[in-house]
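Posting for a labmate who doesn't have an account.
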Amino acid sequence: MIRSLLLLVCCLGFTTSFQTSSFRCARSQSSYSTATTTRIFSDPGPSSLPPPSPPSPPYSHEEAQAIQALLPSPLIDSKGNIIESAEVIASLVQDQRIGFYFAAGWCEDCKTIEFMLEQYRSALRASDQPIQLIYVPCDKNQDDQLARMQEIGLELGVPLGETADKLKHLYGVWPDVDVEKFGGTMRELIQEEEEVAVAVEGQKDGEEGDSDDDAPIKPDVVRVTPEDFEKELIDDGSGRRSGIPAVVVLDNAGGELAFLNMERDTISAMADWPLDDPQGRW
């Protein structure tokens, strides 16, 4: 109940800022225009929030090493430094709820939700339910990755390249620009509801009926209506669950606890984070 109210407040608060900002999100723009609130957060009063939990004692060296072994290696901070100390890593995740955040600085959908995402994280910190997002980059280079981590205030990430690619493949999350690397079907969202879904498989660049074997092959593309996108009707056998943004919530044994498809559901996907599940608290 608390997280639903917090998410609602975040969404309502975002409306005013969204209407005056320069960016747009075509998939969810209409849902933002109906709100009239001008306040981002109101003071809930001391009785509205549960009392803060007492801090847990620091992990022992052995416990910290066990925590480090559950997470990807290496981990980096927002300046690109590799975090080698198990104790430091353990301190950053202790009493937190942990999720892999798949995103990129060039991704407009990511930028659209990140303003609200930070408000949501702030509200959860105030309600003693903090979340720690580990950035899994889909950026073009490391400079872009670090700039994005710093801009949205993320303390942990994995390096661009092999470590990030393993996580993308493991959890089935990668953007269309990585289809050539990981496989799958490129998806293009059509805003006009009257358009029907059309699958184009291995279409050549030439005119229809062109038999030129030298013509380059386009990646497979599926054009879908908003309704199809919401129902996740696309199943191309690649193991890809979504593009970006997306969050994979981890349990405290390092396994997947929940999958939040923010590419499809935008910020409302955060309501599905099982904050009250004790297995989700590290």
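Reply:
Got it, the structure tokens are right above this. Residues 97 and 131 are 4 Å apart (CA to CA).
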